[in-house]
Design goal:
A hairpin with a 2-residue loop joins strand 2 and strand 3. It contains five helices and seven strands, in the order βαββαββαββαα. The protein folds into two domains: 43 residues, no CATH class; 119 residues, no CATH class. The strands form three sheets. A three-stranded antiparallel β-sheet has the order 1-3-2. A two-stranded antiparallel sheet has the order 4-5. It has a two-stranded antiparallel ribbon with strand order 6-7. It has 171 residues and is an alpha+beta fold.
């Protein structure tokens, strides 16, 4: 958020600023602009809505479902990461956390473009065209190739929706 004097206004759960020389993360998925040498943007909740976003993020304890890496600052005030629908573009089924996954922005990109998918046993599948650097990162971050699941079994990803996603990308 920016006031009339172009000064940054803090909104911890919805806003962030980072140096323009660092890689874009959430800004690449949200709305962003440059102000005084900083990239300024906010989390995009549409079309799911903020309730869905926060329910899924909390179900995963703000940790990426694929890498397990925390997506929250040490002080807990700033959050990163994306909530994506198991079927992209997002298809609302029940509005429950089982309709989505909380992942880092890199894995959101990979999932949306079919480079990774969720298997019938909650395993992480790699597309044959997954770039080498992403494949290496995935092998280091998740050597078991298993999805990190929410503690509540009712919030685990909908395997039928994951299957439709896989078929869309020829798995």
């Amino acid at each position: 958020l920016v006031d009339d004097d172009l000064a940054l206004i803090s909104a911890p759960d919805l806003e962030f600023a980072q140096s323009a020389t660092t890689p874009l993360s959430v800004a690449a998925e949200g709305q962003a602009g440059f102000i005084a040498g900083h990239v300024v943007g906010g989390l995009r909740h549409d079309p799911q809505g903020p309730g869905f976003f926060y329910s899924v993020a909390e179900a995963y304890d703000w940790r990426c479902a694929i890498s397990g890496i925390g997506q929250r600052s040490l002080d807990g005030q700033f959050h990163e990461g994306m909530v994506l629908g198991l079927e992209e573009p997002y298809v609302r089924q029940s509005g429950s956390p089982k309709d989505g996954m909380f992942v880092s922005s890199s894995f959101a990109f990979a999932y949306r473009h079919g480079l990774v998918a969720v298997g019938d046993d909650y395993d992480v599948l790699r597309h044959r065209e997954l770039p080498a650097e992403m494949r290496m990162f995935l092998e280091i971050a998740n050597p078991t190739a298993m999805l990190r699941l929410p503690g509540n079994p009712g919030y685990r990803p909908d395997l039928e929706a994951a299957g439709r996603h896989r078929r869309k990308f020829g798995y």
